[in-house]
Amino acid sequence: MSNITVWATPQCSKCKSTIDFFKRAGFPPTVKDLSAPENLDKLKEIKAAGHATAPYVETPTDSWSDLRPDKIAQAIAAERAAAPSPTLQSPTHSHDLSA
């Protein structure tokens, strides 16, 4: 499960690229449509913070706008570090091969 949200607009190539970067890394983000009427308050909030280019990305520790491969790489690294590591399981039984 990813802790990343990408606020995107339809037909936005930078939005699609950003989303694809996260998906290919194994951390599909939550994608929200900035052009949807129910997200108008969020759009106003983003613009008021000085952001003028989609996508707008939110992670647990950072946020930015535009296609930012450097920020995406940092977010992916943080997600990997936060992900629980798989546990190694011991075999449930052994096979005697001495026959």
TrEMBL record:
Domain (Glutaredoxin) ranges: 4-57
Region span, Disordered: 78-99
The protein's matches in InterPro entries, at most eight in alphabetical order, are given as:
Glutaredoxin, Thioredoxin-like_sf
Lineage top rank: taxon: Bacteria
Q: What is this protein called?
A: Glutaredoxin
| One Pfam family hit | Glutaredoxin
Organism of origin is: Brevibacterium antiquum
SUPFAM superfamilies found in the cross-reference section: Thioredoxin-like
